[in-house]
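Lest this sound abstract, we think one record worth quoting, the chain in one-letter code, the fold tokenised, each line plainly labelled:

>
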Amino acid sequence: MTFVSPSTIQPASRGPGTPIVPRGASGTRQKQFKPQSSKPVATPQQGSKRDTRPKPYMLEAPSIAPVYPNKKYSDFFPWKGNHPEDQVTDVHAKNGQFDRTQLFGGKGVTEHTPAHGNLSHSLRQKNNLQTLSSLFLSVLEKRQNYSRISTPTAFKPPPRVTLADHKRETWLRDLANPAVQLRRLSRTIPHGVRGKSLLEQCSSKSVPPTRAIWFVRCVGANELRGLKRKGASSLAFGNEARWIKDWTGQVTQFIDKSISECGTTADASWKKKMIYALRLSAQLYSEHLVDRTTFLDWYLALLESPNLDILPLSLLISSIYWKDLLRIRRTGHRFTEALLGKAQMILDSDAVDLYAPLLQKLSTLITEILTLHQESLIIPQTWPLYQSTLEKCVNRKDPLVETCLQNVIHRNNSLSLNPKSKTAGPTISSQRLVIDILDSASIPYDLDTLTKSCIDIMPDHSQFVQCLCEWAVTSLRVGLYRIYLAAAVLRQEAKAGVVLQEPIMAFLERFSTAPGSKSHVYLLISELVRADRFSLTQYMRWLISRGILNPFTSMEKEHPCHVRLLAELPFAGATHHARNLRNSLLSRVGFSIDDEAQILADAKKLIASRLGGLLSDDIPPPGPSLKFAVQELEYLRGMSRNQMTDIALWIRASVKKHVVEGAPVGPNNWRDLTVEVGITAITLQQFLLVRKVLEEFEDYGILSEVLKVASSSDNSGVLSSIADTVSYNIEVFSVLNSVNDILQLLYHRYKKLQLRRPIEKYVVASFLDLASFPGCNEEIRKQLEHDISTGYPLAPFAHSPVSDNEFLNVMQDGTADFNEEMDRLLQNGSSIDKQTLTRIFETIVSRTESFLGDSAAYNRFSFVSLMKLRQFDPTNFDVLMDGWVHRLFLNIFGRPPLLHTFAVLIAGSCITLEAIVKAALELLKGPSNGTKLSKSLAPELAAQVLELIVGEAFDGCHLTDQEIYSLKRKRQSFERNHPMVLVEIIYRSIELCAAEGSFDLDNRIRGLILSKPIIHQLRSLSTSQPDLLRENLLDPLSKNSQPALLKWLRLLIDHLLDDHDSSDLTDADADVQVSRLLQLANDFSIRLCQLKMRIIFDGQRGGSPSSNTHITQTFFRGIASDFKQKAGIWSDLVSVLDENCARQIRSHAEELFLQSMTFPVPADMNEGNESLARALLAIIEATSAASTRPATGSGMSISAALVEKLNMLVQYVMPPLEEGSGSGGVAAPIAASAGGVSSGSSSSITGGSSSGAGGSGGAQAKDYVAELRSWLVLFLRIIVLHRAAFSSISRVGISDQARIVVGLCGLLQSEHLQSDEALFDHVLDVTCLFIDDTSDDSRHAIRRFFRNKSPIPHFIYLLGSSDCPTTDSWLKAVRGNAGKTLDFPVKSWELLADPTPVMGENDTSLSLMMFRTRRTKCNRGEGGKG
């Protein structure tokens, strides 16, 4: 027998013509031993007649018999009589059948001869193992080489042949028929069927997708081979890529056409075609027969289209490519933005209910991305647009979803360029936020909401109490309502269980250095003492236990607040023991209790002398002209808060007791029953004096109670004055929650008096003014409006108390005819025409002008006449009044001041202050109507208008106390409702004063502008409407660039910042002003400091670069000296500067920041430098709107400097590599563009994931990461702020962008950085931000750079991967003798089954010789068949 190697024998394969005859229990022996036929035997067809003829016996080969390639069986020879085994001899009987071939070259050594004799000698030798091994290897080598395929590949795609139309249709129908084998069709394929037409033919004939893919591969392989034959290899590669993209475009056009035909037919054919197009395209995509990048870009463009009708189909397609869309950054964030954009379109549409199912599907997809692919929701560029949409689309009640949402919000905000979204640098302090909330509070005050909002921001109640107290008393805020508002909030805090004593004492201790009014501090504490929220005994025990009073030998007003408070606090309601202890402590420091009592007695005597009949029965009631002198008012203001409280309580008690006890008896002993019993008996003059005293004491709590008592009066003047008092102090009374109470009392009194007598119109007008404020009773306001519009015809006394008892007193002044005509018109109540109104008006004003300054009585008569005349026709009267005002303005030097002329008219509502100021502004702006003021007239007019607004010299105005109060209320209303007009007249006055250059005029206007009312109003505008103040006052003056104007502005802002500082630094150098500004800057003065900062830098505009540099250096020296306490306010100071100034500030900040980052970190560079860096970063954020400077101080661009710092950081964080562990060269073009990062830090990047990070080196690197964590966050923030510097289209910009991405990816490779999840995510987010702007070529180059440097899985998401990962990863190749394996690309277009009609030995596209393939056609039969 012949020896057959087992390796060459394989189980037999059943040929296509071999019939399969299964064995069965009912089968006959003929079926079991049927010999194999040499010719194919046709399989019996169903329905054919069974052959029942007997068949001869045929010996069948065993099922386990090996089969040779020539279809012969090994060791199976049926008996025919001519085989050697058929002849049996005695030798065969003794020794068996054997092969006569001699073995081992020896004679007589046959197959049955034992091998012991031949091998035993060799096995005894020393090299026997080597001999056996070599023999065994020889056997294995022969075995491997046996039947190995050695013929080259004969792969060739089916050729294309031009066929007739009917043959082509026949071929395509055969392609669609699964019964027709592809080998039959592979002889030729029709020429001309390609591209979009190929897909349409497959769709129209319903070719199965797998067979359509075969056809596509055949056509594509021919096309690509044709391109290769046309040019060189590189050109051919470019042509091949271009052809694949063109083919992908044709596939997308085929899908677009299918989409456009959706719903166009009545039957379901369009649906069948659409499903086929989606399935075929998905198969092409999965087989890598399209350019995946181009295909996904097409889909994203389809999803981003504004047409909501194709959204269901787009969402269906997204489920097919979901993983690939979110696998890489390039498509992930764009896909997410598209989904959010669609959701936003639905939410903004008018048919939200119609699109509800789509919105639900979008919400599901977005929620899945939020929970599983958060990195795709890092979209900082469009985050402000889609944040609200994301919050609406997800279920925030789910804890997991809410946690993921907050994480995404935080990560996107950390990448925002908006300075308000600061994450790495200093954020706005909680104190600043609380101050802003308190500043924004307005009537009606909601104390519960206000307190809750503040506590939510500042949960530390002790800190909140101190902040609230400081806000209430600081001189940088305006309004007494702050004190009462703070007291009300503190009372609520005390009710909630918050201890107030300790934080208030801490506030008092440090108030000695804070700006503010000490009298307001004492008033605040007094209000808390009155509410029993501040313990007097605990305060005195605190003084004693700490020995605070020991250093003091007197108790002066200049002493610290926490010391002087002992003499100021009211002890009226304290226990006898507490009062004795107070007196004892004060006596020890030299404070005379007797002197205090004497001052109190003198003050009561003074007040009683003016309020006779109210406070003392021995003194008669005051006359109408009896007032407090200026010195007397100063004396009252100088008393302590304790004395003021005693007097206020004394006055309140006296007013309550001063009531009408019985009806007065007439001359005939008849009682006047029209007078009510039990109402207050206070007269108008007494009420005005009481109000004056209590307002001077600033004790509005007592004043509120007095007003409630006085509201029972039947005096119209008293009732009107009560309403005016509440209107004038509306904020304070609103905090005290007494506005509606007083209004209700006044309204009830008004209704009661209305039943007895007519009520003057000015009273109802005062009530209506009060009821018009927000929060007042709406029903009362509506009723008063109805009454004043329908219940008051023209009457002699209709406008204001100015006309009371005035008109008849001048009837005998030679003007009887005129008086009679006025009386007749007024009493008849008839209307008059315009000509009559004009004649009467001109008569009055002509006589008024002739007597101006001469006869006060006649002037008042004229003014009262004008008030009465206005009732007939207010519209035409106002036009006439405007003309008269203009005439007076043009003759300003020939008449009394405007204050004397218009004070009575303004107080009597005959003309508004706004109308006068606007008329003056029209003349001051220029000759718009042909009227031009002289050079000397304009400044005088501006000065007199300012006096009319804020002047206090009422001696020449002949005004009563009630009229003066009414005038002040009209001024307050003008300042509150018309701030722009006020700011404009201030601007014009400063401009005219600077142009005039008169010393007297300058002093005059300076005194008016720096007066308390204007300073308070401007200070209020600086917090409530800073833009109005800047645009209408600062910008117009600063742009003029006149030194006098800038000096005016600096002076004005200095007084706004600190009106107690008498030093005038307006002429000082800019650096001195900057130094002072930095000292004044805090959370309360930040807005004013912003204005000052702008003025200083505007004053240096156009100066030398050295002077500007000197100012910025001074600014940064101030930052360095106080950055720990004020790190949060520096950014706000520079946020108001223009681009040039901001660029200078930013330049210095960037240089200092980069200089502060030194690696390794010095020992003394820790917390201090980090705080400084945070302050600098805040400034850089604030000036982020300014363009980035082109270069640093060393001439290096900011982008290159940041790259170098990042390179140092990467090298410092990463542990050092062992020698020889670094990788080789760097892939171009990163080698040339990445500079130090690509070459110098390549070893560091590689070492980030190496085993060398363990041990002591790994621990050291971990310590470095922990030490540099805050520095790294700050550095990443500044990289984000300078992102625009890396987006340049220049070669340098692209290079720096690639280098920064390489450095950030290097940081991501750090194992210790990966252990800090929050920090790793932030680095990843910053990398995503820069990757989004990176071109595809740069991304591909970076990917090649990291290919052999231990890339982490996140790099696949960031940089993407090759387009065919499935075909590139499964096949490897070995390069040379080094044994290095490489990915071997497989041409997906040539993975073609059945390419030829006849199967060849090596007809695959990938040659089988490369894999040392052997023939595998011999295999074992199955089921007993060979």
Remarks:
- Residues 233-260 form the longest helix (28 residues).
- The chain has a mean pLDDT of 78.
- The first strand starts at residue 160 and ends at 161.
- Residues 271 and 860 are 94 Å apart (CA to CA).
